[in-house]
Model the fold of this input.
Amino acid sequence: MTGKYGLILKNGRVVCPAQGLNGVMDVAFADGKVAAVGANLTTPATEVVDVSGHVVTPGLIDMHTHVYWGATSMSLDPLEMAYLSGVTTMVDAGTAGPGNFLGFRHFVIEPSPVRIIPFLNIAFPGIFAYSKAVMVGECGDIRLLDPKECVRVILENRDMIAGLKVRVGRIAGGNSGIIPLDLTLAAAEETGLPVMSHLDDPPPTRKEVLDRLRPGDILTHCFKPFPNAPIRSDGEIFEEVKLARDRGVYFDIGHGAFSFGIRVARSMLEQGFAPDIISSDVHALNRNGPVFDQMATLSKFYCLGMSLSDVIKASSTTPAAALRRPDLGTLKPGSHGEATIFKIEEGSFEYKDALSETLDGKYRFRCKGLVMKGRYGAAPATAEELPRMFDRRIARCNCC
Ligand SMILES: [Zn+2]
Done:
């Protein structure tokens, strides 16, 4: 490169699993893209940020969020959550359905400085009633589930929609059992897109769901506690879980308020069954705990013994593959000018899961800043100073 870089991040520990990088070096950006990665880059730059003592990764991906702010009670402000979570891409896991997707596109996704990749809910109104006061699952009435409408909206928004989302289980689907997943798979076959399936309590059973998922589909809430946990009470992994992995189904954490068990996670990791993707499922009812954000979710897996490189891979390279977006989740020169910069703080940190089981951790990841479109933005020290797309006063609901 001749001339000048726009930005150099100096002396960070660069972890980019897509390129096999893990060491102290510099990352340079120019014209909104990654320009170079290497030790002691000497070309001058308009802005130099010393990130020594910090980890520098590709712009991280949170594969399970809810950010249809203002239109759905569960959703959060995407920009605010990006800085807390340390992510430059958020996958919205089916907050919008065919009946209200256009509003999501125009009022939230298009104006957002952080990339939002939507999965379309099979249910016409999306997740329309998710609060402490009113909780009505969108799959409880199959009159709301119309694969034709899904296909129509996908075809009209092909540039944006990356998959279909369905929430099956007694809580989200009442008596509907496996029917919502079958309808979703029909729409997915018609459009060639992957399915992300939530699973809460039976019906349907874990086996009914896993046996249907195809290579490239995603099971979120994959380390859910009993019932529908991936392990028996003695810790043995169910056969259908192993078969689904062998077939190429992605196992995504989707921590959430009710869907992640520390005991299950420990047991799965001990048996060499790490999650393919680590995501938060952060929303209005869990942002003040037990989830908080993606940084906290990644911290839990680092404290549980996964290597830093494997944790980062599960929030960069692998979700990018599941999204069929090889341009994301990498610091390869020429790719999007995005990066996450965070500190691994050492101390004594107590983490909780959905059952209030605790994990005494020695580490906590804290976002220092993000690079988006080749420009650095520092994460503010206090929550009140976080940048937001929307006015928080209007967003505040009376349930949390
Ligand atoms: Zn969710």
